Amino acid sequence: MPRLSSIMTDLKKKGTAQTRKIYSRHGMDPDRVLGVSIADLKVIAKSVKGQQALACELYATRIMEPMYLACLVADGARLSREQLNEWVEWAAGLQTISEYSVPWVTVDRPDARVVALEWMRSKEAHIAAAGWNTYSGLVSVLPDEVLDFAEIQSLLDTVVEEIGSAPNRVRCTMNGFVISVGGYVKPMLKQAKAAAGKIGAVQVDVGDTECKIPLALEYIEKIEGRGSVGKKRKTVRC
């Protein structure tokens, strides 16, 4: 059974300077990355699947790749709220972890919606971004009949009112939330499109990358054109 020391040794061997540069350009703290590709991490994840204690050890390194690996294999429902809050706090400076990996494990939890709403109100931008992406994950996997449409409408209204003054990465995740509602919650397609039309082009500093922030209305209409509105995902992990 793999141990933390052997996995860290393997990760360090697989890291490259070029991948470290790529991660740095995408908002990762350069002092906390090894330069291991996501493809390699997914291969390693298969060998440690289900090892919750090891996942917690990996995350506690506060290094991007073992943290990402931990979130691929951890069961978020088995983390205490204290642990989960530590995980999102430790993700500061690593936007892939805060905006994607932490929401993955949070969506596993029965209290995921409550956590998402709490995080959205945080003054820490990376925690607020994690909250918005957690709620986006929930609407992508949960059946419409268990969703609170009034609450989702309220959140759409919040996006329209606050996205212009929100922190940089929070603007990005707010925009993504509108797209998720339009793409995955068919009964709220009209409302999502209305919100998307109001927010228009969202300005986000994406650093030294070629990344582009999609126009929410255009993106939703593409989903609509494919006839894919309302098709839920099996998992938010990718």
What does this structure look like?
With 238 residues, the protein is an all-alpha fold. Helices cover 63% and strands 0% of the residues. α3 packs across α5 and α11 runs parallel beside α13. The longest helix has 17 residues. It is globular. The mean pLDDT is 97.
Number of helices: 13
Basic shape: globular
Q: Label the structural class.
A: mainly alpha
Give the low-pLDDT segments. Answer: none
Question: In this structure, how is the largest beta sheet organized?
Answer: none
Q: Average pLDDT value?
A: 97
Radius of gyration: 18 Å
Q: What percent of the residues sit in helical stretches (DSSP H or I)?
A: 55-70%
N-to-C span = 24 Å
Strand composition percent: under 5%
What is the string of SSEs from the N terminus onward?
A: HHHHHHHHHHHHH
Number of distinct beta strands: 0
Main features:
globular; 238 residues
How is the topology of this model organized?
Layout: H1 4-14, H2 17-25, H3 38-47, H4 52-59, H5 64-73, H6 81-90, H7 95-107, H8 112-120, H9 125-141, H10 149-162, H11 168-184, H12 189-199, H13 216-225
Give a short synopsis of this structure.
This protein has 238 residues and is mainly α. Helix content is 63%, strand content 0%.
